Amino acid sequence: xxxxxxxxxxxxxxxxxxxxxxxxxxxxxxxxxxxxxxxxxxxxxxxxxxxxxxxxxxxxxxxxxxxxxxxxxxxxxxxxxxxxxxxxxxxxxxxxxxxxxxxxxxxxxxxxxxxxxxxxxxxxxxxxxxxxxxxxxxxxxxxxxxxxxxxxxxxxxxxxxxxxxxxxxxxxxxxxxxxxxxxxxxxxxxxxxxxxxxxxxxxxxxxxxxxxxxxxxxxxxxxxxxxxxxxxxxxxxxxxxxxxxxxxxxxxxxxxxxxxxxxxxxxxxxxxxxxxxxxxxxxxxxxxxxxxxxxxxxxxxxxxxxxxxxxxxxxxxxxxxxxxxxxxxxxxxxxxxxxxxxxxxxxxxxxxxxxxxxxxxxxxxxxxxxxxxxxxxxxxxxxxxxxxxxxxxxxxxxxxxxxxxxxxxxxxxxxxxxxxxxxxxxxxxxxxxxxxxxxxxxxxxxxxxxxxxxxxxxxxxxxxxxxxxxxxxxxxxxxxxxxx
Length: 484
Ligand code: F0G
Fold this sequence. Notes:
- The chain is an alpha/beta fold.
- The chain has helices at 68-77, 84-87, 120-126, 145-158, 171-183, 198-206, 218-228, 242-248, 250-258, 275-290, 309-315, 341-351, 360-372, 379-393, 415-422, 429-433, 437-446, 457-473; strands at 6-9, 15-17, 34-37, 116-118, 130-135, 163-167, 186-192, 210-214, 234-236, 266-270, 298-304, 355-358, 402-407.
- The protein has a six-stranded mixed β-sheet, sandwiched between helices.
- The termini are far apart.
- Mean pLDDT is 93; it is low at 56-61 and 478-484.
- Ligand F0G binds next to helix 5, helix 10 and helix 14.
């Protein structure tokens, strides 16, 4: 049987067969994380020469690169197919992730195929001419995690696992629970008690997962689970599992396809455990290597100020990764010790992007602005717009450059945040006090707290007249600062 893929340690470069990986997905020599490589990957070298003993042999020593023109055509053609594997926005690109022995057996909920929205009002607010949002919240369970989960959970099935598990701030667990249910696998989720949004918690219960709320944070959950998987035959589905990232790289293909094979100048991604930015970087870099695109976008990662270990690492002259005690209302990215920081930092450096941090106030404002554009997203996704404003202000992104924000989760994931914001109950007095006049004015214009009225025609009419007059006077249907 020919070997279609191998795992390569991203720290020491050691290569192993996919099946030989340890249950914690760490290199036994240096504890580094693996990446999946194929015969055509950059630096793969002669596929057999020097391969360690645990790699089965591949009779084909000649490695042919997949043909870019042929792949584009095939991917387009599959859009009209009725086969589940073709309807998936991940497996439609399967030439880029050829690690399944039998691709017809993949577990799919028709993930991917997410929209790329134009965001003219947010563009104006950020100071760019053309802004797009790749809305990964439009996936089956409402976040980008589905694209990774279809990939890694399919491997779990192929390798005969009965149990799967993950530590999560909520979205990974929702995705894992759904895909495990589809495949008939049992699953356990570990989540930090009291620090995940209700929408996400309800999903893992709905899909039938065994949900364990630990009295710790995400970092504590992952640490504990990493020990457990070494004692029980449980397949770990966090993004340390390199197959997750293979699925999560496919939005890169979708983006360029949706832009008629043009490449945006910038891609802005939220950063938590830093798997997603790593995956998207891999996707773009592999497409360039294969000749599908001629350059890659600059990939910038935005962290919440209270959960900013990568941002600090870039600013640290000794380049030492120092975990932080994470705190942010954007609970999805409340992570202080990100597993994939090395991979993500390389992507930022290799593509020429940046790492930024944004405050709680900036996140709240950006989320409301994205909502007011009729798109909406969860708080962690809104760091992208908040971060873009900073990149523009610093001259790192210029007005004429095309920017894509990766919106990672659906607005319904965390409705409490949105309700608190609009009722004026989200930010503390100290946070409000530190805002500029302009920010306060923007909040005031965006906030839409519900009116509570007597069910009396005259009362309702009077209240509506007042509101409509006020809105007309302010030139409405717009967010502040727009003219349309
Ligand atoms: N945005 C959302 C909505 C997320 O759920 C996450 C991560 C991120 C951004 C950050 O992505 O970790 O790859 O850098 N959520 C994980 C979870 C940690 O458990 O759902 P990352």
